[in-house]
Design a protein that fits this description.
This protein is an all-alpha fold. 70% of the residues lie in helices and 0% in strands. α3 packs across α4 and α4 runs antiparallel to α6. It is found in: Cell membrane. This is Rod shape-determining protein MreD.
């Protein structure tokens, strides 16, 4: 339990620092902004308390908002994906989630990719809808969501592959 807490604390701090120092400075063509910090929410332990993941998601988003001076939109998007995470886990992993036997390092790549794609698209949809907050600019919201999602999914998949432990 203590080891699990320390691993998640290190993951939390490292993802926030990388997001703040590196990825917040990327804004390609005004549409591409990568946000791989949501990997913390994605790979939070499945058996943990649901309130804990929602509070951790809020803290993660709030700290990101402080670095970006974005007024709480990251906190709202993170709380939303932390809240709907059980539904997305069930959609992506099926019975493995129902029996709480998910070990993210041991699941097949297709299920993990589906899970990341759904989380990223939901997060970015909420994030950019709140950022722009104008229904007449729906095309801009969709463009930013699409292009940023593609880049974030690609980046998150690469990070996941690099840092995943291969089951023996």
């Amino acid at each position: 339990m203590n080891n699990l807490l320390s691993v998640n604390s290190v993951r939390f701090v490292v993802l926030i620092l990388i997001q703040a120092l590196l990825f917040n400075n990327i804004n390609f063509l005004g549409y591409i902004n990568p946000y791989p910090y949501i990997l913390f929410i994605a790979f939070f332990p499945v058996k943990s308390n649901r309130v804990m993941i929602i509070l951790s998601g809020f803290l993660l988003g709030l700290i990101t908002d402080m670095f970006l001076d974005s007024g709480g939109i990251h906190a709202a998007a993170c709380v939303f994906i932390a809240y709907v995470r059980p539904v997305i886990l069930k959609f992506s992993f099926g019975t493995m989630y129902e029996h709480h036997h998910i070990r993210f390092g041991a699941v097949d790549f297709g299920s993990k990719l589906t899970y990341i794609i759904v989380l990223v698209i939901l997060h970015h949809s909420i994030l950019f809808s709140l950022e722009i907050f104008n229904l007449s600019k729906i095309i801009l919201i969709l463009k930013k969501t699409l292009f940023s999602s593609i880049f974030t999914i690609l980046l998150s998949t690469i990070i996941t592959i690099i840092f995943s432990r291969n089951p023996k």
